[in-house]
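Worked Example 4.2. Consider the chain below.
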Amino acid sequence: MAGTTIEWYDFFIYALCAGLVFDSQFFAGLGGNALLISFATIGISFFFRPVGAALVGHLGDRIGRRRTLIFTLLLMGISTTLIGVIPPASAIGDTAPVLLILLRILQGLSAGGEWGGAALLAVEHAPAGRSGLFGAYPQLGAPAGLLLSNGVLAVVTAMTTQQQFLAWGWRIPFLISVVLIAVGLIIRRKVSESPVFQKLQQTGSRAKTPLLTVVKHHWPLVLGGALLFAANNAAGYMTTGGYVQTYAVNSLHMSKSVILSAVMVAAVAWLTSTLFAGWLSDRVGRLKVYRVGFVLQLVWMFPFFALLNTANLGLVVVALLVYSIALGLTYGPQAALYSEMFPAAIRYSGAALAYAIGAVLGGAFAPMIAQALQSGTGTVYSVGVYLAALTVVGLVVTFVLKGRSTTPLPTQGETSTIATGSAS
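Applying the procedure from the previous section yields the following structure tokens:
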């Protein structure tokens, strides 16, 4: 949880600043398209997530979960810190946005490999019947990272003027990453290797080409997992990707500190419902919890935007709270479900690849698509239609994907399948 919180803090602080800062500091020369291009840079990194998943997933299946997680943490931390020292375009011209995008790509490579290792390290340490609960802890890194990133940004914006914030204030959250990364490394160095991987080492059962095996024999599972996550990820990136915050400030004229504080409250609800969903999935099944979450997400989509449009702080908080509970229900069981979908020897590669592809299909350009839909149609409700369509896709996948909600994790030689009909 500590490691993924730091990873997602780094990743989300970029997304938040893309809508609040980077359009004017790095892309001002693009005129009216500056904000759209700034949001697009959030998505660029997602194309490198599958690359990171493939590379780090291969290493995770070959040399272990723990060692690869230390590498991804370092890569993310260094990239984030360097973003905090890039001069603006007014000082170094086109070099500034190029450096920004290159460092964002490195963030994408790190994020692509991070989640799979964190999920497996937690789930493969879990006692029988508690995989969902243990797997929920690395999932908490996303809402905790959102809480931390919005909190730090809210404090900085409250303590600086608009001119100071744009000049140097926005750099503070990126530079803080140096401290966080040190804490994360201390914790991860003390975590023991997964017992499942240790057994693979002892028995000589490690796959020689785990990625190739996944692509050749388990691609339906990868596709199913990707579509399932895409529905959650696109909705989640309305807040983690900075769209809601930017819309509230630019279109509804709410103050930065107020909307950031509202999102922090919602992040607590997301964190709580994520942990609850992991616990509940051990009792009723992973996919049943997913279905409840997707139905709530679908039903709440348009009331969410209606309440947001009031610009009333109390109603905005209510909108974000219910929205975040739905996100938690479709996020909490993910680590356990993905781990149970793949044999142990290729589990890192399979889970990481499904997650990374789902992120590309879902969250990669969700803020940019939302901004384009809002600008093109003149109404934020068009964004609701887009998110509702993806939610329906995710809901359908839960009836196609056959999970293993109460059985031990499959070991090498076992297979999981996608089957038509009811799932556990």
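The mean pLDDT is 87. The first helix runs from residue 2 to 25. Compare this with Example 4.1 before moving on.
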